[in-house]
Design a protein that fits this description.
The protein is of the alpha/beta class and about 425 residues long. Helix content is about 30%, strand content about 20%. The strands form 2 sheets. Strands 9-8-10-1-11-12-2-13 form an 8-stranded mixed beta sheet, with helices on both faces. Strands 3, 4, 5, 6 and 7 form a 5-stranded antiparallel beta sheet that branches. Helix 6 crosses helix 7 and helix 11 packs parallel to helix 13.
């Protein structure tokens, strides 16, 4: 038996006026997903436990069967694992976004009356090559024994603070679109050290050739840093220790890749992964399915729906779902037959909702689809979308971290 999990990050939504009161999942043309839905168990799962913020770190751990309230120490430590960093005692990792503020000369003080706005949490979807040049500049001028900067993918980077405070109150930049940054700066003991870093970084970034060229091309400059998601190294059993299965994982984002490394999954290297609509969907699936010839479990993560949700772009979110159907689900089914992988189970769901009308993550339960090739289950609901919540009888998994055990032992739940 092979086990396959496909994540459409942030795919779930709420009714959108521009879509006639329907959600992107409800209007997207997704024949492969809906065909599976007719012979799958459909239900809702609470991937975000009460009291925790609705982030991909929380959702991903839940889906993989790890209680976030027990194992989550912060988002950045998970990403640090993707960099091959083993955090030592006293070391705190921070997620470090390159962002676009409404002014180059920012005031990084919580009592500033003229603090700039958070214009773009992704600095205009800055590409990895440009971002690397900026982060290397910051490391050269600001890096020292206390602070180190590590370049990542696109706008997503990492700060390592030796002796830092993991208890600071920090706000994800994608949660404050077009809002003043004053009330959302890091707060707590030693927070002023981060304010100072942000001030110095803004001075360096404003005049960097990369940003000068971006302005010339009419693109938003990456004119500031934003710190959030901090924490220390988590301690978790591997997936093999927990479930007795070997596995692989593929994703464009360091968060998912870092979780994979911490859980002992083989993190696949696939060219052309961007996290956006132009990502290499087919490469993700083909590498994952080939790996399934040797391992038991594959986790395929697709970021594009979440990015569209954060941008508030309805058309892009619908397209991301349609591409997921056409290039991921269809290719998974093709490769299973082509490679003669035999019996399989498929779990398909988002890690959380990212409604385009809000442009932030939300905590409500999300729909899941669970297919077993050996025992198709006639579903009373003819398609996969948020309407599953109204099924009679419905199937709600209230503790999301319990879904993985149900998926791996489906016959015990029949």
């Amino acid at each position: 038996m092979k086990y396959i999990v496909v994540i459409g990050d942030g795919m779930a939504d709420r009714p959108v006026q521009a879509l006639g009161g329907k959600t992107p999942l409800q209007v997207a043309h997704k024949p492969n997903i809906d065909a599976l839905a007719k012979k799958s168990r459909l239900g809702m799962v609470q991937t975000i436990p009460p009291g925790l913020p609705p982030g991909s770190d929380v959702g991903a751990l839940s889906i993989l069967g790890y209680n976030p309230k027990q194992f989550l120490t912060g988002r950045a430590p998970l990403e640090a694992a993707a960099y091959g960093l083993n955090l030592a005692p006293g070391e705190v990792a921070f997620r470090c976004n390159l962002v676009s503020l409404s002014a180059d000369k920012a005031s990084f003080s919580p009592d500033s009356p003229d603090a700039p706005l958070m214009e773009d949490y992704s600095a205009g979807n800055i590409d990895t090559h440009e971002a690397k040049a900026l982060m290397e500049c910051l490391q050269q001028h600001l890096g020292n024994e206390e602070f180190q900067f590590f370049p990542g993918v696109g706008y997503r980077h990492l700060l390592l603070w030796k002796g830092g405070n993991p208890q600071l109150a920090c706000t994800p930049p994608h949660d404050i679109p077009n809002q003043s940054i004053a009330a959302h700066l890091p707060q707590g003991q030693a927070a002023e050290k981060l304010w100072h870093l942000m001030t110095r970084a803004a001075e360096l970034l404003a005049k960097h050739p990369v940003n000068e060229e971006r302005r010339r091309r009419g693109q938003k400059p990456a004119n500031s840093l934003w710190f959030w998601g901090q924490g220390t190294r988590p301690q978790m059993p591997t997936f093999k220790e927990k479930y007795g299965l070997s596995g692989c994982l593929v994703s464009a984002v360091d968060l998912a890749r870092g979780i994979g490394r911490l859980l002992g999954l083989e993190v696949l290297e696939v060219p052309g992964l961007t996290g956006y609509l132009d990502t290499n969907y087919l490469g993700k699936v083909q590498h994952s399915m080939a790996a399934l010839l040797e391992v038991d479990f594959a986790y395929i993560h697709v970021e594009a729906p979440d990015e569209a949700g954060h941008k508030g772009k309805v058309e892009d979110k619908v397209r991301a779902i349609e591409d997921l159907d056409k290039f991921v689900i269809a290719e998974v089914l093709h490769q299973i037959e082509f490679l003669e992988l035999g019996d399989f189970r498929l779990l398909f769901l988002p890690d959380h909702a990212t409604p385009v009308g809000l442009r932030v993550h939300t905590s409500e339960a999300v729909p899941f689809l669970l297919f077993d090739s050996r025992s198709p289950f006639p579903s009373p609901y003819p398609q996969y979308d948020e309407g599953v919540s109204h099924m009679q009888p419905g199937w709600l998994v209230e503790e999301g971290f319990g879904l993985m055990g149900m998926f791996l032992e489906l016959e015990k739940e029949a």
